[in-house]
Write a structure and sequence with these properties.
The protein is mainly beta. The chain contains 1 helix and 35 strands. The protein has a 5-stranded antiparallel sheet with strand order 3-10-9-8-7, with no helix packed on it. It has a 4-stranded antiparallel sheet with strand order 6-5-4-35, with no helix packed on it. The N and C termini lie far apart (about 40 Å).
């Protein structure tokens, strides 16, 4: 069986001193003319979807879009089945971040080669536009209702896409060296200001979201290390930036570093914004996001490569964190307050190349479900998030590795809408 692996699953960033494992981080080269803002418009008629027409015209809320090399499968998690597929024009694709609009009407997803963002109508189950962006697109963000910000790693820039016209209206130079893999940190409490990270820059980059420019940057202590993951705690006004083997803590009022924490990795804020989960190798550290000292609440040893956290608060108020493993075919359910794993679920396996320095697998919490793709098995696992039970393995296609829920999917790696 051919289980070829896209470069997007793992990368060691040359010259940065930072080794990262990221979804969609290493795409194929695209069209440099994307900077002119022109996009290839399409009314969706040329993109066939292989489902029932009546079904495809219904409200798409509650469905799951699963992205594989040759298809975008539309899954009904309640019935555990594929109800539609988008296949026309798709062949051996690699995908970056998907992002859904605040009204849930459209999904924007990075298509790595050619360097584009595809716009999908969630009710019609159709691709309605193709927007050219810079090379090596990876992550995308939705800081306001009117815009999507897609990052070009080759250029170190954000392409700002108008969600009405589907056109690139601005290009924001964020990286200091005009290249490098980057992310965007924003929150409504920060107003028009945000922060960017870049694996080539030893700094937290200050971005004016309304002026579309980098206005300044905060120098960090190790000039050999860049920045990658990021988080913000609104109760304290502290921002967190992965910086080599440490995490830099920045006071957003003064834009000064107040502390360095001796761990680094992905960081995920709970929906109530009171707990910050931080990946630290095979451990997960849960921090009090309301504490100015970033007090540690619990450390949970997973030992099987935990990845992106998704949270769920039960009816009795217990906060649980779900994490899919990169080293096994399982996911763990963690009682955050108790600091212990309470359930282990078999969700399917991923491809693990021998030369990969790190691995990544995603998971999404939406509606009543935790959802995670397993590219080696070609399935999407559907977990009842209240019952903490696996309810379905939905067959899609080998290589399926990206999912988007149509509706509120909480906070974490794909982020809250704000």
């Amino acid at each position: 069986m051919d289980r070829s692996v896209k470069r997007r699953r793992f990368v060691q960033v040359a010259g940065s001193g930072l080794v990262v494992s990221i979804a969609g981080c290493a795409g194929e080269d695209g069209d440099d003319d994307a900077a002119n803002g022109d996009d290839t418009a399409d009314d969706g008629d040329d993109h066939d979807h292989n489902g029932d027409d009546e079904e495809s015209e219904t409200d798409g809320e509650g469905l799951i879009y699963a992205f594989a090399p040759n298809t975008i499968a539309v899954i009904d998690p309640e019935n555990g089945e594929v109800v539609d597929e988008i296949t026309d024009g798709l062949e051996d694709e690699a995908w970056g971040d998907p992002r859904i609009t605040a009204d849930y009407d459209e999904i924007y997803v990075i298509r790595e080669s050619p360097s584009q963002v595809l716009v999908i109508d969630t009710a019609a189950h159709e691709i309605v536009d193709e927007v050219d962006i810079g090379p090596d697109g990876t992550h995308m963000y939705h800081p306001n209702d009117d815009e999507m910000w897609a990052h070009s790693d080759e250029e170190g820039t954000f392409y700002v896409i108008d969600t009405d016209s589907h056109e690139v209206t601005e290009i924001v130079d964020s990286g200091l060296e005009e290249e490098g893999h980057g992310k965007l940190l924003y929150h409504e409490d920060l107003g028009s200001m945000g922060y960017a990270t870049n694996v080539n820059d030893p700094a937290a980059l200050i971005i004016d979201l309304e002026a579309y420019e980098r206005t300044d940057y905060i120098e960090l202590e190790n000039e050999e290390e860049g920045t990658h993951y990021k988080a913000y705690a609104p109760e304290t006004g502290l921002a967190y930036f992965e910086h080599g083997d440490e995490t830099a803590v920045v006071d957003t009022e003064s834009d000064e570093v107040v502390e360095y924490l001796d761990f680094s990795g992905g960081m995920y804020l709970s929906p109530d914004e009171e707990v910050l989960g931080a990946l630290d190798g095979d451990s997960i550290r849960f921090l009090d996001a309301t504490s100015e000292d970033s007090e540690e609440l619990a450390v949970v040893e997973v030992d099987e490569g935990p990845d992106a956290l998704r949270y769920h608060e039960s009816e009795d108020g217990t906060l649980y964190a779900y994490t899919a493993h990169t080293q096994t075919d399982e996911a763990s359910v963690i009682d955050v307050e108790a600091g212990e794993i309470v359930e282990t679920l078999e969700i399917g396996d991923i491809v693990r190349p021998d030369d990969a320095p790190f691995l990544h697998r995603t998971g999404v919490a939406g509606g009543d479900y935790f959802v995670s793709p397993a590219d080696a098995d070609g399935i999407v696992a559907i977990v009842d998030i209240d019952a903490q039970e696996l309810v379905d393995h939905v067959e899609v296609e080998e290589g399926v590795d990206t999912v988007q829920y149509v509706g509120d999917s909480g906070t974490g790696y794909t982020g809250a809408l704000r």
